[in-house]
Amino acid sequence: MLLGASLGLCSSGLALAASTAQVVDWEAPESCPGALEVYDRLQHSVGDVRDRLGELGRVRGVVVPGERGYRLALEVLQRDLRSSRVLEAEDCNDLVDAAVLAITLALGEARGRDDAGLAIEPAPAQGEPARSTTDVPPPVGNAPDVRTDAEEAGSVLGGFLSVGALMEIGALPSATAGLGLGGGLRRGSLTLAAHGALLATQRSSVGPDESVELGLWFAGLRGCYAPLEGPFRIDACGGLQLGRYHASGIALRSARDVEDSWVAPEASLALAFPVSSSFSVTSGVALAVPLSRHRYTINVSESIHEPAWASLTFHLAVALNSGAERPAPR
Q1: Residues 229, 67: Cα–Cα separation, whole Å
Q2: Domain range spanning residue 118?
Q3: How buried is residue 174: exposed, middle or buried, by Cβ count under 10 Å (0-12/13-18/19+)?
C-alpha cells in the first residue's frame, strides 16, 4: 500500500505531502523538533513510514508550552477507534521520542488485529463520535510525566466573576430583593469565593407621616467543595458574612440613626449550569445565623423589628468563567 503523509509544522509551515488523503499532523513551537525530525525518527523506528502508516487512519500531535516545560496532546485514530494521551516533559525531545514510541505501539496493535483476522466494527454514523480505546501506553525508562484528562482538569487553576439577583428572608421585616456580586478561584472540586450583597431598604410606618427605615449589606468568604461531577456542578459551602445593619427614623422626633455590626456564619448549596465554556447560570440558597440580634424600638419600649434567628438568601446569577473546565459555583 502506498501511503502519502503530510507532517505540518504550525510555526514554520513545513510539510511533507504525498498522493493520498491519509494524514499525520505535527504542530509544535519553533524551539521543539520539527516535522522532518519526527518523520526521520518514525522512519528509523518502523522502517518504511509511508507503507506502515497506512495501517492507521490518522495521527495528530500538538505540542504547546506547559507548566513543567512542554505538553503533548497525541491522538491516534484507527478506523473507528480513537486513542488519546496527554504527556508533559521539560525537554521537547523527550515528547518527540514518546510520540514516536506511542505511534509505533499503535502500529503494532493495528497489525496484530489484522493478522489475527479480527473483525472491525462498522464506522460510526455521521456526527457520532468515535469510540475510544485504552490510552496509548507511555514510554518506559526516562519517560515524561503522563497525566490523564481528569488529572489535567484537577490541576488547572481557574477563576470566575458573577453578578445576579438576591432574595433575603429573615433579616428585615419582610422578604427583600437585592444585588449580589461574587468572584473567586477554583481548582478541581475546590473553590474559594468572595461575595457581597446589598439589600433594598425597607420602611415601616409607625404613625402619621412617621416611619422607620431598615437596611442591610454584607460581604463574606466561602470555601466550597463539589462532590459530584456531571452536566452541572453542585457546590456545598461554608463561610462567614460580615456587614452593617442600619435603622433610621423618618420624621420621628428625637430619632437617631443606628448602625450595628452583622456577623453571621453561613452554610450554602449552589447549582451551576454551563451555558458555554465561558459562561454559566448559577442558583442556590444560603442559611446564615447572626451571632447578635438587636431589637429596634421607638418611644423607649415600642418594638419595631428584631432580625430572625436565621436568614435565608436565595440567589440567581450569571458567571464568567476562565481557566478551569467546570462552571463556577456562583
Answers
A1: 25
A2: 23-147
A3: exposed
Give tens-digit pLDDT for 263-321. 999 999 999 998 887 899 999 999 999 998 888 777 666 778 889 999 999 999 999 98
Identity of the residue numbered 26? W
The single-letter code of the amino acid at 314 is F
Residue identified by cell 420602611 is 203
The percentage of the chain sitting over the pLDDT mark of 70, rounded to a whole number, equals 69
CA 227, CA 235: separation in Å to the nearest integer?
A: 7
C-alpha 308/C-alpha 14 separation (Å) is 71
pLDDT in tens, 55-100: 666 778 888 887 778 888 888 776 667 778 888 888 888 888 888 8
Are residues 227 and 106 part of one domain?
no
CATH code where residue 85 lies: 3.30.160.100
pLDDT, position 304 = 81
What is the DSSP-derived secondary structure letter of residue 122? P
On the CB side of 107, CA atoms within 13 Å amount to 20
Q: Is 120 helix (H, G, I), strand (E, B) or coil?
A: coil
Tell how strand 145-147 and strand 157-169 pair up.
Answer: unpaired
In a domain, 209, yes or no: yes
Write out the H or E segment, with its range, that includes residue 150: helix 149-155
Q: How many domains does the chain have?
A: 2
| Same structural domain, 132 and 187 | no
Which of 91, 107, 86, 95 has the alpha carbon at shortest distance from 43? 107
Alpha helices in 3-148 (DSSP H): 35-46, 49-52, 92-115
CATH number of the domain encompassing residue 298: 2.40.160.20
DSSP H or E run through 152: helix 149-155
Q: What does the pLDDT look like over 177-236, one tens digit per residue?
A: 999 999 999 988 899 999 999 999 998 777 777 788 899 999 999 999 998 767 788 999
By the 8 A CB rule, do 220 and 241 touch?
A: yes
Residue 166 makes CB contacts below 8 A (sequence gap 6+) with 177, 178, 179, 180, 197, 199, 313, 314, 315
Instruction: Say how many residues make up the chain.
Output: 330
